[in-house]
Amino acid sequence: MSTDTATDAGAADPGAPVLELEDLVMHFGPVRAVDGVSLSIAPGRVTALVGESGSGKSTVGRCVVRLLSPTSGTVRLGGTDVTGLGRRAMRPHRREVSIVFQDPAGSLDPRMLVGDVVAEPLRLQGRGGGRAERERRVAEQLERVGLDRSVAQRYPHELSGGQRQRVSLARALVSEPRLLVADEPTSALDVSVQASVLNLLADLQRDIGFACLFITHDLSAVEYLADDIAVLYLGQVVETGTREEVFARPRHPYTQALLAAAPVADPVRQRERTRVLLGDDLPSAIDPPSGCRFHTRCPLAVDRCATEEPVLRTVGGGGSVACHLVDDDGSGPDVRDATPGATPDATTDPDHDDRPGSPA
Amino acid sequence: MTTATTTTGDRPAPADGEPVLEVRDLSVTFTTEGGTVSAVDGVDLTLGRGEIVGVVGESGCGKSVTAMSLAGLLPRSAEVTGSVELLGRQLRGAPPAQLRAVRGNEIAYIFQEPMSSLNPVLTVGRQVSEVLQVHERMSRARARERAVELLRLVGIPSPERRVRQYPHELSGGMRQRVMIAMAVACDPTVLVADEPTTALDVTVQAGILDVLRGLRDRLGTSILVITHDLGVIADVADRVVVMYAGRVVERAGVEELFVHPRHHYAAGLLSASPTPGRYAAADDRLQEIPGLVPTLAEQPDACTFADRCPAATDRCRSAAPPLAELDPGSGHEVACWHPRGSTPTTDHPAGEEDA
């Protein structure tokens, strides 16, 4: 395999970003699912793409692995522009990027033996040598994801959800990609199984050193696994930064609200937290709000937000943010201080009946 | 709020609320083509007035089956034994007509997926008022007015307009609010919320949990929240019931359970979830619970967690530990022969009495 890597088209410059998205746009008819996303992932980094359902995060992932052809914009894998490549021209680049989906039952062919599932990328890429060599690599791969090599002779339905997700990971990693797109890899799993898949993903990433686009809505998993974070709202990136920066000092009101809304598995801390309630409705991606797309739900919005679209710009202290209210030095208001509806604890606040969500 | 009575500012202490729902030794067995499956085994559960009790466990632990069996929602293939008393009246084995009157009126349910529980071809106003026309025998016009009030109660903005809309015109969070409005239309004594926020985003979830808390605070509704999400439990529950493979393995006040879980499964669940400030360094791994939840044809006289438990001994494999208080009067019960926080050689005091 060392010879394989040496001939890689995109691996020429090891320092080049594994993935670069430039102004990526994906429209489905009138639905503007992704509307100008730029993002870059350095080798070996885990970048989490977070946002609510409907924010376009899975669509970005599908554009990266070219399950979708973007409406416009550029997708570069290891420095090579793959946006306009046809099926055949794309093929040599396929092994550089793999994807793992949320539902392991739906993404494994029920009629294929696990061994064949894992070997398929090698077969399609015409690699892995003969049958015996392929079998050896499949066995190696299964053991790497914590499964017994005998699992190769079984069918997906004979496995548990966690085991199936391990098979998905084995299939994704068998071609030794430089980038793994993990689309909600643990969301369909039980808590204890989630833990083992997150551990495995962290171990593999540390050992093998692939870069990862980790798409999820689970903020605790993001904090556990990610190096960098990009927050998506209605098809646009509203904030980026390192894990430490974003969790310690979220700048965008949406990021602040998202972090405040995710419950903490600690009753004392959870009940002391400031609550920020956004309106329920994520606006339609067919007719997104003017100006800042978040202004319809933003507790801090001013007149300017409805008319002028904020650009994503680098701010002091690292990271970037798209918000008029954040100064160039990175300072700005916090929805958790400013929301009229925010109450320290719903059950002890005498005024809590006035919160949005309750009748006055 | 025709009957808004209890409006206590503070969260009612768990022990104060008189029990409205008492479940004793509830067992459910399903007969399938593949044989029998024991889904619930000897579950005891008490829900006080104005109390929010969280039932937590992974898929297959029997939490939803327990919830469904309360008002007779299980299919005929389910054999239910034990006792379910609502305000002293026995519901288990009650005639269908009586259960029908109880459902919606005294015990109301909301489920995970609001879209599949709503009728797509009727306006939400019509669906909410139908409940009132059937159960409360209200006139159509009065029910309509009340539907608007109810939608406002659950935090739906401009309810006068929303009543005329169809489910597909609402977001997931709004649909779940409509479901809650229908559920509380008749001011039920007990609201059973089965994974009420699982299909929703966190920003929406926070609002729904707020509505549930508001119902308890202002109407005094007793709420049973069934969930796999410890964050939800930490947010709304007063007391927690942890289930595993059809049995209750631990019961405690919410703060007590999160700080001092005594059952190894409860402790495993807690340390399996990533918490704020934790990062996957080489030496900081999430705790895994090896193995799988068993599917049981019959419940063995043994601890069903023994095969996955770090502290299991022969005793665990030969006798089922009873659910009992470790410290009398603490209200913290655990079904374990070797609970955490005890010296390894000392068995569960309750077990000693048995032996």
Automatic annotation (TrEMBL), chain A:
<feature type="compositionally biased region" description="Low complexity">
    <location>
        <begin position="338"/>
        <end position="347"/>
    </location>
</feature>
<dbReference type="GO" id="GO:0005524">
    <property type="term" value="F:ATP binding"/>
</dbReference>
<dbReference type="Pfam" id="PF00005">
    <property type="entry name" value="ABC_tran"/>
</dbReference>
<protein>
    <submittedName>
        <fullName>ATP-binding cassette domain-containing protein</fullName>
    </submittedName>
</protein>
<dbReference type="InterPro" id="IPR050319">
    <property type="entry name" value="ABC_transp_ATP-bind"/>
</dbReference>
<dbReference type="InterPro" id="IPR027417">
    <property type="entry name" value="P-loop_NTPase"/>
</dbReference>
<feature type="domain" description="ABC transporter">
    <location>
        <begin position="19"/>
        <end position="259"/>
    </location>
</feature>
<dbReference type="InterPro" id="IPR017871">
    <property type="entry name" value="ABC_transporter-like_CS"/>
</dbReference>
<dbReference type="InterPro" id="IPR003593">
    <property type="entry name" value="AAA+_ATPase"/>
</dbReference>
<keyword id="KW-0813">Transport</keyword>
<keyword id="KW-0067">ATP-binding</keyword>
<dbReference type="InterPro" id="IPR003439">
    <property type="entry name" value="ABC_transporter-like_ATP-bd"/>
</dbReference>
<feature type="compositionally biased region" description="Basic and acidic residues">
    <location>
        <begin position="349"/>
        <end position="360"/>
    </location>
</feature>
<feature type="region of interest" description="Disordered">
    <location>
        <begin position="324"/>
        <end position="360"/>
    </location>
</feature>
<comment type="similarity">
    <text>Belongs to the ABC transporter superfamily.</text>
</comment>
<keyword id="KW-0547">Nucleotide-binding</keyword>
<dbReference type="Pfam" id="PF08352">
    <property type="entry name" value="oligo_HPY"/>
</dbReference>
<dbReference type="InterPro" id="IPR013563">
    <property type="entry name" value="Oligopep_ABC_C"/>
</dbReference>
TrEMBL record, chain B:
<dbReference type="InterPro" id="IPR003593">
    <property type="entry name" value="AAA+_ATPase"/>
</dbReference>
<feature type="region of interest" description="Disordered">
    <location>
        <begin position="320"/>
        <end position="355"/>
    </location>
</feature>
<dbReference type="Pfam" id="PF00005">
    <property type="entry name" value="ABC_tran"/>
</dbReference>
<keyword id="KW-0472">Membrane</keyword>
<dbReference type="InterPro" id="IPR013563">
    <property type="entry name" value="Oligopep_ABC_C"/>
</dbReference>
<keyword id="KW-0813">Transport</keyword>
<dbReference type="InterPro" id="IPR003439">
    <property type="entry name" value="ABC_transporter-like_ATP-bd"/>
</dbReference>
<feature type="domain" description="ABC transporter">
    <location>
        <begin position="23"/>
        <end position="270"/>
    </location>
</feature>
<comment type="similarity">
    <text>Belongs to the ABC transporter superfamily.</text>
</comment>
<keyword id="KW-0547">Nucleotide-binding</keyword>
<keyword id="KW-1003">Cell membrane</keyword>
<protein>
    <submittedName>
        <fullName>ABC transporter ATP-binding protein</fullName>
    </submittedName>
</protein>
<dbReference type="Pfam" id="PF08352">
    <property type="entry name" value="oligo_HPY"/>
</dbReference>
<dbReference type="InterPro" id="IPR050388">
    <property type="entry name" value="ABC_Ni/Peptide_Import"/>
</dbReference>
<dbReference type="InterPro" id="IPR017871">
    <property type="entry name" value="ABC_transporter-like_CS"/>
</dbReference>
<dbReference type="GO" id="GO:0005524">
    <property type="term" value="F:ATP binding"/>
</dbReference>
<keyword id="KW-0067">ATP-binding</keyword>
<dbReference type="InterPro" id="IPR027417">
    <property type="entry name" value="P-loop_NTPase"/>
</dbReference>
